[in-house]
Design brief:
α3 (81-91) links the parallel β2 and β3. The chain has 386 residues and is α/β, with parallel strands linked by helices. Strands 1, 2, 3, 4, 7, 8, 9, 10 and 11 form a 9-stranded parallel β-sheet that branches. Mean pLDDT is 90; it is low at 1-37. It is built from 15 helices and 11 strands. The two termini are 24 Å apart. The chain has 2 domains: 13-20 and 39-258 and 328-381, TIM Barrel, CATH 3.20.20.30; 265-326. α5 runs parallel beside α6 (197-206) and α14 crosses α15.
């Protein structure tokens, strides 16, 4: 499958098996141009911090706005993304749907396969499976042992089960004894999200979509991810151009552009502290990042939670230029220009984590972003394009 646009279908099962059995080899770094091979594809992600009815309504708005795929965040202690995906599938018609992203630790791969089989059947074949290492599992007393191995074995097992196979598997993280799914099942595309070179190489081997994590997307980051992806693809003799590569962007839209950017200060601080770019480590001889770390430690809640507390110092520390580095935020016209800058690096689309301008509720803010998103996507796909 060269690209994933609109409703998605799975890879041929025998091709999956050939890829699973391929032997890894040392390869020279390869840089692969990613633009020009596929039409623009846009993905939205909704974080479900609201009622189920509101999540479903936002999904309908995402479909109307022109997004090709919609992911629902899998967040510990929040409404279950798979239940929500079932509800959304009944109220949408075109848009592809999946978890963004789930993990092989809190959800056993066999349970994931069963959930995807049911949703693929219910949605008329519109599902994809977003997988990653996970986040926030420390709240459950869980850790992330052997992350690359866990993902590799999860993808292998889930792919085989959805292909209708009886699976006998003795891995380091999964053991199965002659198991087979009951009921209708069909393959789904696999999307892998990561900030890790090792996981990006794994995506080059096994994934249909590779998501460039971290939110800081520039020429250096793009070249690194392309190289890692191509190295993984070369291990199994695969053309890396068959993998759709999408940068992860945070999208916040408001007719009040200043409000959108102010609403992203906690986001920008979170990713600045997480990615720790060299220039930000050197800002004010290291004092700036130390102050950001301290302000984040005084903040509470997830950075995307409407009911979070943002330490007031973040407003002083994070200026608009820093926000622009980590988020596509502003008026629709401003967001078009910022998104064009990223797409010009050679991407054929983007995976957009929808963020809310600070309004009375998370739903109200996300609705505002989606109401502007249609205008943004139309401009990016229009005659002037990227």
């Amino acid at each position: 499958m060269a690209g994933l646009v609109g409703p998605l279908t799975g890879h041929d099962a025998s091709y999956r098996r050939r890829r699973r059995s391929a032997v890894a080899a040392d390869v020279m770094p390869i840089v692969v141009p990613l633009r020009g091979r596929m039409p623009l594809t846009f993905e939205a992600e909704i974080t479900p911090g609201m009622s189920t009815a509101e999540v479903v309504e936002l999904a309908r708005l995402a479909e109307d706005a022109g997004f090709d795929r919609l992911g629902v965040s899998d967040v510990v202690l929040w409404h279950d993304c798979f239940v929500l995906l079932g509800l959304i599938s009944a109220r949408t018609n075109r848009i592809a749907l999946g978890p963004m992203v789930t993990n092989p630790y809190s959800r056993h791969p066999v349970h994931l396969a069963g959930a995807m089989a049911a949703l693929q059947d219910a949605s008329g074949g519109r599902m994809f499976l977003g997988l990653g290492v996970g986040a926030g599992l420390e709240q459950l007393g869980m850790t992330y042992p052997r992350p690359v191995r866990a993902l590799r074995e999860a993808i292998t097992v889930i792919t085989a089960l959805l292909a209708g196979e009886t699976v006998e598997f003795a891995g380091r993280t999964i053991t199965l004894h002659g198991v087979r799914l009951v009921g209708p099942c069909a393959p789904v595309p696999i999307s892998v999200g990561t900030r890790s070179p090792q996981v990006m190489r794994l995506a080059g081997e096994l994934a249909d979509v590779a998501l460039v994590g971290g939110r800081l997307i520039d020429a250096t980051v793009t070249a690194d991810y392309r190289r890692w992806l191509a190295e993984g693809a070369a291990r199994v003799g695969r053309d890396p151009a068959t993998v759709e590569v999408a940068p992860r962007l945070t999208l916040c839209i408001s007719r009040d552009g200043g409000l959108a950017r102010r609403s992203m200060k906690r986001y920008a601080a979170h990713y600045a502290a997480l990615i720790r770019p060299a220039d930000l480590q050197q800002r004010q001889d290291g004092r700036w990042l130390a102050e950001v770390d301290a302000a984040l430690a005084r903040s509470t809640g997830w950075y995307f939670d409407h009911d979070r507390h943002d330490d007031p110092e973040l407003d002083r520390l994070v200026d608009e230029d820093t926000v622009r580095r980590f988020a596509v935020a502003g008026t629709p016209d401003e967001c078009v220009e910022l998104a064009r800058e990223v797409l010009a690096l050679g991407y054929n689309g983007a995976s957009m984590n929808l963020a809310a301008p600070r309004r009375s509720s998370m739903y109200a803010g996300l609705r505002e972003t989606l109401e502007g998103a249609g205008e943004v996507l139309a401009a990016l796909r229009g005659p002037s394009g990227v």
